[in-house]
Amino acid sequence: MRSTVTKGATDPAAEAAADAYAAALLVAPAHYARLESIGLSTGEVAEELGVTVEMLRAFVEHHLVRVRGAAYTRPRLGAHQHGHLARWAS
């Protein structure tokens, strides 16, 4: 019998989904917004949050939406169910 764990470990889509899920658990949107607003680099933000730069990038890619000077976390329960809103200077 072949193990499905091995297949998942080499499947890029599964890895991306796992990274997105982990990023949602590990990165607090409000803390991220504070750190971003003071102008820290990506590496500095990741260090302050206690995550890798790759995990921080997964958070930004999969969980943030930037619209006209505002950053929203992606909705979890459908349209207009944003968990957090942060404004940044343009």
UniProtKB/TrEMBL annotation:
It comes from the Bacteria. This is Uncharacterized protein.
